[in-house]
Design a protein that fits this description.
This protein has 76 residues and is an alpha/beta fold. The protein is built from 3 helices and 3 strands, in the order βαβαβα. Strands 1-2-3 form a 3-stranded parallel sheet. The protein is globular, with a radius of gyration of 13 Å.
């Protein structure tokens, strides 16, 4: 049985997020890290970045790319 080693999370279709969703994304990323799964966030709009900064949510251990295609092209 194969296991997941990397998860790409694309937020390009998300126009804005509220406090609860931002915290859930943060918790998801922490849980994935504890399981040994690397994560890459892509498509973060300025509004989402601003919300994350206002809520003091850190993505310092997560790879961030401008688009999903860019993130996937780097993993080949």
């Amino acid at each position: 049985m194969e296991s997941i080693t990397h998860l790409f999370i694309d937020l390009s279709g998300v126009a804005e997020i509220d406090t609860m969703v931002a915290h859930q994304i943060s918790h998801l990323l922490k849980a994935l890290s504890l399981l040994g799964i690397e994560s890459t966030l892509s498509g973060i709009r300025p509004e989402i970045a601003q919300t994350a900064v206002q809520l003091n949510i850190s993505f310092d251990k997560v790879e961030i790319k401008s688009s999903l295609s860019h993130a996937l092209s780097l993993k080949k």
